[in-house]
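QA checklist item 7 of 12: single-chain prediction sanity check.
[x] sequence parsed
[x] length recorded as 421
[x] structure emitted
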Amino acid sequence: MVALAFSEGIEGIIASRRDSFLKTQQKLLFKELNEKCGLTIVSWDNAEHTQMRYATSFSDEMLTFCGYRVVEMVFRFTDRLILDSCQISIYNRGDCGPWTMARFESTQKGLAQAIGKLTKMRQPLESKRKLDGTDIQQLVWRTRGYDMALRWCASKESTEYITIQIAHRNEIQDLRSDLRASVRAGELNAQVRKEPNGARWIDVPMVNQGFKGYCVVAVLERLMKYYNSSIDQHILAQIMDSDPSTGTDLERGLEAIEENAPKLRILVKNTYTDKSLRTVKELEQVVKDYNRLASKQKAKKVNWDGLRMSGYDLRLFLTDVDDKLFLKMRAKREPGTKRLMQRVKESIDRGVPIVWSVIIMPGDLKEQPMASFHARLINGYNEKTNEIIYTDSWGAGHERHTMPAERAWAVTMRLLTIRPR
């Protein structure tokens, strides 16, 4: 690899602005990114344009930091559109696939040397945190104007991530403090917004999962940011053994989160699990109930033999059913829509969003003709309209959606709360 000159990378902007880097106005930052780095394409992660994102997954433009290609960079701004912090991903397993250990270690050491030269700080602050049996490591260079942290993790089995964080001076702490939730549960109800139309909702920080199957870990990152933790989806993907293509095995992943919950200073509580599609026997009963209803409505039945030959593919089954009939049938199961709304109301009024595992039916998303499973956050409700308010981790435009409570209950697979201890 040939190192690029400072003027061609993000570090050139940082070096030229020195201690005032985190005071840069948004328009000026984008102008300098364009003129010095050749960046023309960014996306917004929220409607207020306070979170700007560059990623190789949607852009062919090459952004670099100290000669290393940037996979993703997220800039966060204040309400006055002044740069407040940024996070740079040089490597993560979800976007880049596996690296050899030699390449991983070479990149980590090279970045440490480059950051030392950039910040002119020789002795960074070192810290480690063991999560799920693997050491997360961090070096922090504390300058007069900002903190710059290099964070990385790898195990004998796989390389995980190398990221750089830039925040205001003294904001980046030892990993033992930085990764855990740092708000009190009793403080959260003040975060609930109340509107004249009856809506009550929580504005949860947006995280864009990109094109990875990281909906579960992106949802958890959003919750943890809401609780003032700096843990991100890549660390969570490592803990929960998430796969960028197939996603997260929720059962196994939640076990891992619960094991690490004391270190993260959180409490995990499962409040509902759908038990109708877990085993072949349960699926067979659902198919019988559905075919009985389809027969009455003169609709197409599900072919059980064909489903068996497919290996009991749930996505195929859900794609094959009539949406309206199937959801009508599911809406009648216990404990029912009223109980869902009661649980949502109790949790939101305490300022605690709900992790919501759902069925996505064909036609729900234009980009996805097949049925699938997905994780969202329920971040509000409206008793007057009998709706839940939810948010997807897909960036701007997905901060707040509504859904009738009956349909919300019909698509619900699991409900769980994660709150600070």
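[x] summary fact logged: DSSP finds 14 helices and 18 strands in the chain.
[ ] second reviewer sign-off
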